[in-house]
Write a structure and sequence with these properties.
The protein is of the alpha+beta class and about 475 residues long. Helix content is about 30%, strand content about 25%.
Length: about 475
């Protein structure tokens, strides 16, 4: 018995010494990081806890709200698992009004969306546009419809018109990563443009969409070889910046200005191709006519429901590829699931209320969106670590953990917007100790790549 007690005391002492050593090492590395001349005007927070005991290993400014950039996605992901449920599905419903007689639908096709961000996405075989449209047309034919005397209407009554959260900046919202979230999202609300640049620096750049000249106020110029994609599209219809010289088919993705219209154009074209008369792709699918539809007031019969992949799969891509659209759709889904209007502020209120009940103060989650793209977001590293701790206790944790990318040999979500860099996640050290951490830096100077290497140097003390 004495030997056992002695061994137990030795193990406890060794654990305490190990923790103290790690704390000391991190403190030393963090102090050096803070003193870097390029961080003189920066706001910096690092919070590290023991993943098993919850004991604080290191804490600097953990209660200070900072812009988290895409590390905020872990908050949305964990909240979605809890407030939507692991088996949650987004559903898009195809139906019709009126009657079918002698192959003629004397009524309208009705599309009802719940904001599925995967509808028409290229990331899953089941969601690819051609397959979705083929399935819908097949269901219409199976119902005996050969001709439609009405039109296509979209039920968007549960969604706000505004698809873009407050606080997103002008330079972001015309580009693919700044696409809005709506009742109907199609092909991740992206459109590809093909760019052709001249052979000399400063030459003009030709813009094409679907192999045809695209209508933009085009101020793009050719830059030196290897300069990459520095083209920006704006919602006023202008495009500026640079791409490298001598590019013949340089593809960039931009945000669709009318994803609902894009989907309906594709749907109507598929109907025509399959010999269903009455709907043409020249129909007016302006955003206004869709949102002002009175489809929600008219009873309709269900033809088919297209469901998204399960939440695990959605969150996998949300975090792996940092898809902002998915985060905004999840926040709106939280509102819709709780019988609230599908609006960003409604979903965020429910999210904050949930975590307040779990002990995380509302001021620690001062969120304006679900993705972290807004520079107005302010969250604390303490809140992020608390949520990551909470996630470890849940039966859905494996799916969430697998969604986190790996950087620097550590499982963590990164975040980057102008002047902001962050990492938060989990790490198991060589000695078997497990840690949970969040590291945010705002208003740094110098290059992002240089900052990342310095942040890694601090986090390496956990290895």
């Amino acid at each position: 018995m004495h030997k056992f007690c002695g061994l137990l005391l030795f193990v406890i002492h060794a654990a305490i010494v190990s923790a103290q050593t790690v704390s000391t090492k991190i403190a030393t590395a963090f102090t050096a990081f803070e003193k870097d001349a390029l961080h003189k005007n920066a706001s910096i927070s690092l919070y590290v806890v023991d993943a098993v005991t919850g004991k604080v290993v290191f804490d600097k400014n953990s209660q200070v709200g900072l812009a988290p950039a895409s590390t905020q996605k872990i908050i949305t992901s964990i909240s979605a698992y809890e407030l939507l449920g692991q088996n949650y599905l987004f559903n898009t419903v195809l139906g019709y009004t009126g009657t079918i007689k002698d192959g003629v639908l004397k009524g309208d096709l009705i599309v009802t969306g719940t904001g599925d961000p995967t509808f028409g996405s290229f990331r899953w075989n089941s969601t690819k546009p051609d397959l979705v449209l083929k399935e819908w047309v097949t269901k219409i034919k199976s119902a005996g419809i050969k001709k439609i005397e009405g039109s296509i209407k979209v039920n968007t009554n549960t969604f706000t018109f505004q698809g873009i959260p407050d606080g997103w900046i002008w330079q972001d919202i015309g580009n693919y990563y700044g696409a809005g979230s709506y009742a109907i999202n199609w092909k991740e609300n992206q459109v590809d443009l093909s760019l052709t640049s001249g052979n000399e620096v400063g030459d003009a750049v030709l813009v094409k969409k679907d192999k045809q000249p695209a209508t933009y106020y085009n101020e793009l110029k050719a830059a030196g070889k290897g300069t990459g994609d520095n083209a920006y599209v704006y919602l006023d219809g202008s495009i500026s910046g640079t791409i490298p010289v001598s590019e013949k088919d340089f593809t960039i993705s931009v945000a669709s200005l009318n994803p609902l219209g894009d989907f309906l154009q594709s749907f109507s074209a598929a109907l025509t191709e399959q010999g269903i008369a009455g709907i043409t792709d020249t129909q007016d699918f302006s955003k206004e006519s869709i949102f002002n539809s009175d489809a929600n007031k008219t009873p309709f019969k269900n033809l088919h429901t297209t469901s998204s992949p399960q939440l695990d799969s959605v969150i996998y891509w949300f975090n792996k590829k940092s898809i902002n659209l998915y985060g905004e759709a999840l926040i709106k889904a939280i509102a819709l699931q709780n019988e609230k209007p599908a609006a960003t502020d409604e979903g965020l209120k429910l999210l904050k209320d949930f975590w307040k009940q779990k002990g995380v103060e509302t001021g620690e989650l001062n969120m304006k969106d679900g993705s972290g793209l807004s520079p107005l977001n302010r969250v604390t590293t303490h809140a992020q670590v608390e949520l990551l701790k909470y996630a470890k206790t849940k039966d859905w944790f494996t799916g969430f953990y697998q969604s986190l990318p790996e950087y620097n040999g550590m499982k963590m979500k990164s975040g980057t917007i102008s002047g902001v860099k962050g990492f938060c996640g989990y790490h198991k050290a060589k000695d078997g100790k497990e840690y949970i951490y969040s590291f945010l830096v705002n208003n740094y100077q110098g290059s992002a790549s240089g900052l990342v290497q310095k942040m890694y140097k601090v986090l390496n003390e956990l290895k």
